[in-house]
Amino acid sequence: MSYIHFDKTQLINLNYSLERETIRTNRSGTYTSTTIIGCNTRKYHGLLVVPQPQIDAQNHVMLSTVHETVIQHGASFNLGISKFPGNYSPRGHKYLEDFDSEPIPKLTYRVGGVLLQKELILDTNRDRVMIRYTLLDAHSPTKIRIAPFLAFRGYHNLSKANNFINKKFEPVPDGAKFQLYEAYDPLYLQLSKENEFVPAPDWYYNIEYIQERDRGYEYQEDLYVPGYFEFDIKKGESVIFSAGLTEADPSTRQNAFEKEIARRIPRNNFENCLKNSATQFIRLRNGDTRIIAGYPWFGWWGRDTFIAAPGLTLATGDTETFLNIMDTMSRDLKGPLFPNIGSGSMTNMNSIDAPLWFFWSLQQYIYFTGDKKTIQTRYLDKLKGIIDGYRTGTDFNIHMLENGLIYGGQEGIALTWMDAVTPDGPVTPRMGCPVEIQALWYNALCFYHELTGDTEIEALASKVKDSFLNEFYDEDKGYLADVVNAGQKDWSIRPNMVFATSLPYTMLSENQIDEILEITKSKLLTNRGLRTLSPEDPAYKGYYFGNQISRDNAYHNGTVWVWPLGHFVEAYIKLHGKSGANFIKKIIQGFDGVMTQYGVGTVAEIYDGDAPHRPKGSISQAWSVAELLRMMELVKRI
Questions:
Q1: Is the pLDDT confidence value at 102 over 80?
Q2: pLDDT category of residue 249 using cuts at 50, 70 and 90
Q3: What is the Cα Rg of the chain in Å?
């Protein structure tokens, strides 16, 4: 039995199987995602979800799902499953025998004497998904019918039946080409053997996505089925169905499928699952190399990119991709700021910390490679521009105070990573001088001095340290204030102070670091990461659920995040060395169990603050995976 495997009893239990999702991506930004039984529960689910840059900057669901039917002796058995009001129909999951993720998602169905295997893979460099059907056993002539459910809509939206779709199709080799709307690329549906396409255009109404319903969003859509493909299949035969934005050569599909399998990192243990997942966040398109922050609904974020890049690339030995990411991001730098979201004309620059995490990311490159010269020759001007911009002042009232600390904030705008905003404004505004911004600022100044020997910057760093200790540290409390603003201090116990203990250059003594880590350990540490607020705080929210306002209010007020755990681990190792190794190893090993939960084979964005710390948010988050991989490397180097 492989590392990730689900048996029949688990698969036919909808309460169990619908909570477990798969996500697979390729290097062009295309993904395929659904539940382990193939029933879509999110509007973001789809067999082929691809960028359509001629329309907008988001992904689009082209092919939502397919329903397969096995036909023997004139009897039909539909293997598909969709949710409609009041029921699931058809209920093809009842024929499932098992699900295996090694080396690619594999479903096995048993219908009487028929044993049919279904495997799914994406073309690495093309916007194309391939599904291979293999008839493992049959005692009578067998046909398979494939009905495609077409969406042609943005993945944040839902499709509704209309009279504007183009119902025409064009024959292509062993398939047909569809283009429901003029603005879209055509969709090529083809098979690797001769087949018959039977036109039977119809709308399927009110397909429901239960995750969207639970999240308080519109959750019903209509999908267009143009007809079905039908073909004979013999025992031992494999037939590949492909859906892509360009025409495929049917005769090469079998070979292409095997080549794609050979590219995959096996998901045969916890670490390999993380490494495989890490590759899925890297997007190469139009000469840019970017990190997608999370699946299925995030795009690229500046902050997330710099925090995740070292773990996703350097920790796995891929220095070239790391530098390509840094080069791509550098082209988006405007003044001293990187985009918080998006790039080019589609940008939002409201991130006070992304430019400072850029320094840290480059420090990680030197840590993993020992190559300081590349950073000096490639990025020194960018680093200087960021420091100069923060000193003189920039957008969002970001500027250096007289005491050397960095201030930022405007009413109604959240600038730090705690960025949830409701109609009432930022949930955690943190206007003023947030603790991690000062830690990152000091680290950036020291790193720049390391690279250049600039004595003026060295003197400024010293001033920042004195001001920081005077403003943020309380000897009686034994920890750091979260935000300081015009003499007012927020003493909420949050994980932001941990970054002051972990960064390459710290302003704290070993005793202060020890105090902060012990408070973090007792109030914030869970087996899934760090809580964003102490449970003893009146504002603490132990569960992340409900509509967007409810979820946003919990997002940084108790919800557990994985990525800050990497900095807790790093500081703990620096302080305790080998004596802390077993404690850290147990924390990392505790994530082994998440590989068969929620996003199968990957790590979620967040977890509930209260036990049992159920996974929530995006099913696969870049910095969650990245920091676990980086933690593993830190432990190996003790």
A1: yes
A2: very high
A3: 26
**Same domain as 584, residue 472:** yes
* 204 and 300 inside one domain: no
Alpha carbons 347 and 551: distance in angstroms, whole number: 25
The position carrying tokens 């990497």 is: 566
> How far is the C-alpha of 592 from the C-alpha of 594, rounded, in Å?
6
Whether residues 151 and 167 share a domain: the answer is: yes
Cβ neighbourhood burial of 453 (10 Å; 0-12, 13-18, 19+): exposed
CA distance 440 to 469: 14
Query: Cα dist. 148→8, 371, 399 in Å?
Result: 25, 51, 55
d(CA 543, CA 488): 29
Per the DSSP assignment, residues forming a β-bridge with 220 are 208
- In the chain, the number of structural domains is 2
Q: What H or E segment, with its residue span, contains residue 282?
A: strand 282-285
Average of per-residue pLDDT across 107-136: 96
Q: Indicate which CATH number applies to the domain containing 560.
A: 1.50.10.10
Write the secondary structure of 520-567 as one string of H (helix), E (strand) and C (coil). HHHHCEECCEEECCCCCCCCCCCCCCCCHHHHHHHHCCCCEECHHHHH
Joined tokens for residue 485: 């603003």
Answer yes or no: are the C-beta atoms of 458 and 519 closer than 8 Å.
no
Q: Give the helix/strand (H/E) hosting 516.
A: helix 510-523
Residue ending a domain, choose from 246, 263, 280: 263
- Does the structure show a pLDDT above 70 at 362? yes
The answer to whether 601 and 101 are in contact (CB under 8 A) is: yes
Which residue has 């799902």 as its token pair? 65
Cβ atoms of 159 and 221 within 8 Å: the answer is yes
Rounding to the nearest 10 degrees, give the CA dihedral for residues 494, 500, 504, 509.
-130
- Which domain range does residue 220 map to? 5-263
Q: Whole-angstrom Cα distance, residue 281 to residue 276?
A: 10
Report the run of H or E that residue 172 belongs to, with start and end. Answer: strand 169-172
**Site of tokens 């119902």:** 167
Mean predicted confidence (pLDDT) in 122-130: 95
Taking alpha carbons only, the member of 583, 578, 597 closest to residue 638 is 578
